[in-house]
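## tool: complex_structure
## caller: assistant
## args:
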Amino acid sequence: MENLICLTETEVDTFLPNGRLEKTKSLLKQSRQVCPSSFTSDAEWIELLRECNPEVLVAAWKTPSLPENLSEIAPALKYVCYLPGSIRHLVPRSAIEEGLIVTSWGSSVRRTISECALLLALSCMRRVRYWTEQMHFDGGWKTPETQTQSLFERRVGLHGLGLISQKLVDLLKPFTNEISAYSPSVPDSIYQDLGVSRSETLEDLFSTNDVVIELAALTPKTELMITEELLRMIPQGGAFVNVGRGAVVDEAALARVAKDRLDLQIGLDVYGIEPLPLDSPFRGMDNVMLLPHLGGPTTDRRRDAGDHGLENLRRFLANEDLIDPYDLGMYDRAS
Amino acid sequence: MENLICLTETEVDTFLPNGRLEKTKSLLKQSRQVCPSSFTSDAEWIELLRECNPEVLVAAWKTPSLPENLSEIAPALKYVCYLPGSIRHLVPRSAIEEGLIVTSWGSSVRRTISECALLLALSCMRRVRYWTEQMHFDGGWKTPETQTQSLFERRVGLHGLGLISQKLVDLLKPFTNEISAYSPSVPDSIYQDLGVSRSETLEDLFSTNDVVIELAALTPKTELMITEELLRMIPQGGAFVNVGRGAVVDEAALARVAKDRLDLQIGLDVYGIEPLPLDSPFRGMDNVMLLPHLGGPTTDRRRDAGDHGLENLRRFLANEDLIDPYDLGMYDRAS
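## result:
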């Protein structure tokens, strides 16, 4: 039995810099470090798995897929510590069914997503999208009629009050105390601890906030939940930001509302179809700010995902409960 | 004697909404409200001043200039409560010499400027300037090589530690504790209270921080103080933000550095010459984010300037010390 660390040099540098690789090895005791680019075929990878029969595999984007007959190839494998986000291409569903423990970067990405939400909210208030085009390509400058807005003392509404939203509340607090959220399943005690008011309905959330930030998880229930009717309820001069999942929003409706209501500012990092299609109506709209799904861990913060993986590795080896291990529901919901 | 409130309807709505006008009138007791656009000539304005001979004048952008022989026209005038920023076009220097008390929005604008600094710093980290062009006009999307950065745990250096910088520290604290500042005249106790480290030199500030934010006041000593040598010291992948005064920076050098060092991101709200000339080398650069001097009070926060004016008015009438009344030095330094 020999544990496996299967990472490229770049993956080591980005997820496990500054002694984290050494810490991983010292936790694992018996381990072999291999580089995915050294395999010339899938068969070679399968052979390595069979030969090492690891209890733990530390993996990232470039790690080759695990085979469907994993329990025959590597019967000792109990835990896959996947450092990035989405495990679907690496781990077959059958392995989760058979009890393989798998973790990913999970909640460690919450602060960069909340930072992206704040950036988009501030950008909407100052109309960064409009001014970038004006200043760079149209020789623009402000006029006495120029309207600008601040986030200070504005009413901010969050759809969803999970870990990312909770972190976002920290970032919003220096600007405003008027924060509300619609998230029926979250108990009152969490609202109270955060100093956030409960919106009883989405209609309430959209009609009484200057800035509405979309952070709800995508489920069959939330898909297309944000309708044209809701979007049109945002008060005059308001903003709508989405850093959660694009498919929660009726994007065709959002594009119509953006076109009709030039008083609204819209900031998007996520889309129903990614990459955003070339003919998306959002491209070119001067009241819609667009980022290419950059909310997740920035290059410099992937080490947070490494720390998260290391903590889970420590817990696994100490027989403690892991943070957010995959179950079949999470597996099926993952993108 | 009749006090004067000389504001347009728009100025009332923007500076004194939600009962603030009524509060102004109740503080002043005897007052007349006039609209600057009702005067058909300067002579009419002078006649009104003579007729009312106010002790207090509440003024804004559209209020006509006060005459050089003010003490003959309105000998009772003791206090001009100017609600916006720069008084040079309204009040002659001689009036300050003769003891007229004048206040402007002063430090009440600090939070929107600090907000603008945070917006530019976050925008530099995620390369908003670049992505705005890519997403809207070039059909762009991220690639596996895309590099992004966060403000979390970054080293931030402030040039200047006045009231705006101090407010900015509040906004930066949720992101990082590694904040330093170069501001020789500010005592250690303020650094300690803020949890900010002192940089002993500008070289130290520029070479040891990932994000350098320019907030120094413009004086003969600070003019062109930020040289090419300093700008080139910013570490790989860093950012330079200016929300203070453009003329503190050698802008020709900044443009050269921006062109040579595409790893640097630059965020500017202020310029040596404003409006920014059409042929400015900054226009079009894809690592330089530009705003048209929007840092000062946003339209929706001009009411903060109204509150500041009201507080000064209350203090004047109660014979208390005013907040930041103009002296000749401030008058001469004002833009």
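## assistant note: Chain B touches chain A through 54 residues (CB under 8 Å). Chain B has a mean pLDDT of 96. Handing back to user.
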